[in-house]
């Protein structure tokens, strides 16, 4: 008799556990970027300030935006690595060409992190101060790069004031890794309005959320494509 109760109790316990799990899954839906590894490459740093306006340096804005982006991507469940988290560059004192050495080590970090993708964050400059708008650059070494670039650009067009297009690039960093990734030019430091916005935390957040939505849409598209092409559906 006691044994019978024990079994009954065990069954009830298992049912309770299963129902709790179900409730938990309903309350906390799986985050969209869970399991994805993303490396953020805040452009320039240290000896390399990038572009500038007065004493406002691209390297500092890149880092600020990258930190906000890290927070937003993590809130969606992604594992995020930062190539740099302070004002430093990655060149070594032994490098003959400092800039090349810096970029080479960025590539190594992207690969070491086993990234699903990387995002390079930069700020633009134009001789004409009227030129403005965020844009995304990609290298055709990996066909996924264009998908990622278009996906982020679509979000920029819907959420930010830009009518710019994706641009093909031939820059060293982007042509030397097959890990999917893009270069994001967040706006023009040479444009008075954008220069003001790029320094505001609320605008940095808007940028980060647009990039994150672009990344979410990219994974939706890419994961579906690979599932189909591997014949799993
Ligand atoms: Zn730059």
Highlighted features:
233 residues, alpha/beta, binds zinc ion, elongated, 6-stranded mixed beta sheet, two-stranded antiparallel ribbon, Aminopeptidase
| Distinct bound molecules | zinc ion
The CATH architecture classification is 3-Layer(aba) Sandwich
Q: Could you tell me the radius of gyration in angstroms? A: 22 Å
Spatial gap, N to C terminus: 50 Å
Strand content: 15-25%
CATH class: Alpha Beta
What level of helicity do the residues show?
40-55%
Strand order of the largest sheet: 4-1-5-8-6-7
**How many domains make up the 3D coordinates?**
1
Quickly give the structural class: alpha/beta
In N-to-C order, the SSE pattern is HEEEHEHEEHEHEHH
Assembly status: single chain
Total number of strands:
8
Shape: elongated
Provide a descriptive summary of the structure in words:
- By secondary structure, the protein is α/β, with parallel strands linked by helices.
- It has a single domain (36-229), classed as Zn-dependent exopeptidases (Aminopeptidase), CATH 3.40.630.40.
- The protein is 49% helix and 15% strand.
- The chain has seven helices and eight strands; from the N terminus they run αβββαβαββαβαβαα.
- The strands form two sheets. A six-stranded mixed beta sheet has the order 4-1-5-8-6-7, sandwiched between helices. It has a two-stranded antiparallel sheet with strand order 2-3.
- It is elongated.
- Zinc ion (ZN) binds next to loops.
């Amino acid at each position: 008799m006691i044994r019978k109760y024990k079994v009954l109790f065990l069954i009830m316990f298992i049912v309770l556990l299963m129902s709790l799990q179900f409730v938990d899954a309903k309350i906390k839906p799986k985050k969209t970027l869970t399991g994805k590894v993303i490396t953020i490459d805040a452009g320039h740093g240290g000896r390399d300030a990038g572009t500038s306006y007065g004493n406002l340096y691209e390297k500092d804005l890149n880092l600020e935006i990258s930190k906000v982006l890290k927070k937003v991507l993590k809130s969606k469940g992604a594992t995020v690595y930062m190539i740099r988290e302070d004002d430093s560059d990655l060149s070594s004192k032994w490098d003959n060409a400092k800039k090349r050495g810096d970029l080479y080590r960025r590539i190594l970090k992207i690969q070491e992190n086993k990234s699903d993708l990387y995002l390079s964050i930069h700020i633009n400059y134009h001789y004409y101060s009227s030129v403005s708008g965020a844009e995304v650059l990609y290298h055709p070494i990996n066909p996924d790069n264009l998908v990622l670039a278009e996906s982020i650009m679509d979000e920029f067009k819907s959420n930010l004031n830009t009518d710019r297009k994706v641009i093909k690039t031939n820059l060293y960093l982007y042509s030397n890794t097959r890990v999917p990734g893009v270069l994001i030019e967040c706006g023009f430091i040479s444009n008075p309005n954008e220069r003001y916005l790029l320094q505001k935390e609320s605008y940095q957040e808007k940028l980060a959320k647009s990039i994150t939505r672009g990344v979410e849409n990219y994974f939706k598209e890419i994961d579906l494509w690979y599932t189909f092409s591997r014949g799993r559906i």
